[in-house]
Write a structure and sequence with these properties.
Blueprint (H helix, E strand, L loop, with lengths): L3 E5 L8 H11 L3 E8 L6 E2 L2 H10 L4 E6 L7 H5 L7 E4 L7 H10 L3 E6 L17 E5 L14 H15 L2 E5 L4 H7 L6 E4 L11 H9 L5
Parallel strand pairs: 1-2, 1-9, 2-4, 4-5, 5-6, 6-7, 7-8, 8-9
Antiparallel strand pairs: 2-3
Length: 221
């Protein structure tokens, strides 16, 4: 079964960031997930333009840039000019007055447009955005911090989005508290990729290549 694995770089060892990027690349990670937090849209600060610029310069592997910031349209150009065509940029629709304008800037820059949906955001409120974007990142925890617990009611949201994805031409991705059991349940349903953080990937004292091989070898009965 094919699905993408994305490394949540806010969980990486920043004392050895070059080594982290190199080892994840060698292990076969599909993309590097970059969480940008402004302390306003979410109650935390995480990663920065400099982190983004360094990781983009250190690898040719695609980046997934998750903008957890207020009014991203104001400064979207600062992020886009540091990316390569084909990288993904997610915004939160609630964070912008006119999210379609911001998404169009992402498209015009040659990036893949995406939206991130919080646990408390209903599918109905983003329905029109689903006709614009190519990726939908569904948060299974409230955004802002790593290591939170999975919110079970989000599973129903995945089912609804997966039923719409072919009609509207988008892919669905998982972000938050991603354990092996979640991949075994939701990959067969059609979830295209999973953001890996402290639950499965980081801080395990094992080589990344070994961990990713084990994940890709999971059984789907």
């Amino acid at each position: 079964m094919s699905f993408e694995l994305m490394a949540s770089m806010m969980c990486a060892d920043y004392g050895h960031l070059e080594r982290e990027v190199r080892e994840l690349d060698a292990a076969g990670i599909d993309s590097f997930h970059i969480d940008i937090m402004d302390g306003r849209y979410v109650p935390n600060f995480a990663m920065s333009l400099n982190d983004l610029r360094y990781i983009r310069s250190a690898t040719d592997t695609p980046l997934d840039v998750h903008l957890m910031i207020e009014h991203p349209n104001t400064n979207i150009h600062l992020f886009l000019k540091r990316l390569h065509p084909g990288d993904t940029v997610y915004i939160h629709p609630e964070a912008e007055y006119h999210p379609s304008t911001t998404l169009q800037k992402v498209i015009d820059a040659g990036m893949i447009p995406g939206i991130a949906i919080n646990p408390g955001t209903s599918v109905e409120t983003v329905m029109e955005m689903l006709r614009i974007v190519k990726k939908v990142l569904v948060m299974t925890v409230n955004p802002g911090n790593a290591g939170q617990m999975y919110l079970p009611y989000v599973g129903e949201k995945y089912k609804r989005l997966l039923a719409l994805r072919r009609e509207m031409d988008f892919s669905v991705y998982w972000d938050g508290a991603c354990g092996a059991d979640k991949i075994q349940t939701f990959a067969p349903m059609g979830v295209s990729g999973f953001v890996l953080g402290t639950t499965l990937l980081f801080g395990k004292g094992r080589p990344y290549g070994e961990i990713l091989r084990d994940i890709r070898a999971l059984r789907f009965d």
